[in-house]
């Protein structure tokens, strides 16, 4: 993030931040005692977000609230990545790139 100085680099930060967080979230989800449920999600990425947001572990399990938080954060990161990667007419600025990097760092720290 420190070296990103223009919009193409900001877009790359959003994209890379999401994928790094996705892999950490995926590993976290695989370590849960039971997989979360999927309601209307399409594709692996949406399914993982749904599973994290709808954990099937006990409410008293220490990972329950963390799973929901990771799912919500990953959803925010995915929205930024989709905008950065596919909506080239929309402006991506340093603030969004910085937010994406920060959110990804939060997921990485909470899953290790």
Question: β content, as a range?
Answer: under 5%
| Outline type | elongated
Query: Are there runs of 5+ residues with pLDDT below 50, and where?
Result: none
Class based on secondary structure composition and strand pairing: mainly alpha
Mean pLDDT: 96
Total count of domains: 1
Proportion in helices: over 70%
Largest sheet: none
Please provide the count of β strands: 0
Q: Counting H and I runs of at least 4 residues, what is the number of helices?
A: 4
**Order of SSEs:** HHHH
Radius of gyration: 15 Å
Distance between the termini: 21 Å
Describe the fold and architecture.
- The protein is mainly alpha-helical and about 110 residues long.
- The protein has one domain (about 5-110).
- About 70% of the residues lie in helices and about 0% in strands.
- The longest helix is centred in the first third of the chain and has 25 residues, at about 5-30.
Summarize the structure.
The chain has helices spanning 7-31, 43-53, 62-86, 94-111. It is mainly alpha-helical. It has one domain (7-110).
Summarize the topology.
Blueprint: H1 7-31, H2 43-53, H3 62-86, H4 94-111
Protein name: HEPN domain-containing protein
Characteristic key phrases:
112 residues, mainly alpha
